[in-house]
């Protein structure tokens, strides 16, 4: 497909648990589709003027969720690939916004896969090193139905390499546009 037509494809919103690769796959899609990437966690950090662990520690999780809802609403209509934070689906209003702005793509991954990827990462306040797998398993049980409810396409993240996932997403975007 010609580059010109690639950049005219619908822009995807990426959802999924932390560590599933929303940001890195978003960057690859951004290069391929020649569209900007908006990473909502980065937008929150910029807005708050502090890192995510500090927002959780100083302002609390509810304040973080308020900022997350605000940046989602600010950017959902951007002509840009959106990489969301793993908890964006927790609020009903956010789920409503996602569903109203397809295509939403869930990068589905097993807790074991995610735990290996985020081991030792101190930037995720919901995870502590001691209980990473247990915590991710709890989050998966709570959130899989919410991701499922918002997703137009589900990709098994742990089955495929990044390049294959990017190709699958582009094929899907071409299909929905046709
Ligand atoms: C969170 C996921 C994080 C970040 C925050 C809360 C969550 O984003 O928004 O730490 O509730 O799952 P990533 O999914 O990009 O790690």
Structure in words:
The two termini are 13 Å apart. It contains 9 helices and 5 strands. Helix 2 crosses helix 9, helix 4 packs across helix 5 and helix 7 crosses helix 8. The radius of gyration is 16 Å and the shape is globular. By secondary structure, it is α/β, with parallel strands linked by helices. It has a 5-stranded parallel beta sheet with strand order 2-3-1-4-5, sandwiched between helices. It binds shikimate-3-phosphate. The site of shikimate-3-phosphate (S3P) has 10 residues, from loops. The site of shikimate-3-phosphate has 10 residues, from loops.
Q: Main traits of this protein?
A:
single chain; 178 residues; alpha/beta; five-stranded parallel sheet; 9 helices; globular
How is the topology of this model organized?
Layout: H1 3-6, E1 13-15, H2 22-33, E2 37-39, H3 40-48, H4 52-59, H5 61-75, E3 81-83, H6 92-100, E4 104-108, H7 111-118, H8 132-150, E5 153-156, H9 162-177
Parallel strand pairs: 1-3, 1-4, 2-3, 4-5
Helix pairs in contact: 2-9, 3-5, 4-5, 7-8
């Amino acid at each position: 497909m010609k580059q010109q037509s690639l950049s005219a494809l619908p822009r995807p919103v990426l959802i999924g648990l932390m560590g599933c690769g929303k940001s890195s796959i978003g960057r690859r899609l951004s290069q391929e589709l020649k569209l900007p990437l908006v990473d909502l966690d980065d937008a929150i950090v910029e807005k708050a003027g502090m890192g995510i662990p500090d927002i959780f520690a100083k302002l609390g999780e509810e304040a973080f969720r308020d900022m997350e809802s605000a940046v989602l609403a600010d950017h959902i209509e951007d002509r840009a690939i959106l990489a969301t934070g793993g908890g964006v689906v927790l609020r009903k209003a956010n789920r409503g916004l996602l569903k109203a702005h397809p295509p939403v793509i869930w990068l589905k991954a097993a807790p074991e896969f995610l735990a290996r990827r985020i081991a030792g990462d101190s930037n995720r306040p919901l995870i502590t090193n001691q209980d990473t797998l247990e915590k991710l398993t709890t989050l998966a049980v709570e959130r899989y139905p919410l991701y499922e409810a918002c997703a137009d396409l589900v990709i098994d993240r742990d089955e495929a390499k990044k390049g294959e996932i990017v190709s699958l997403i582009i094929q899907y975007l071409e299909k929905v546009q046709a």
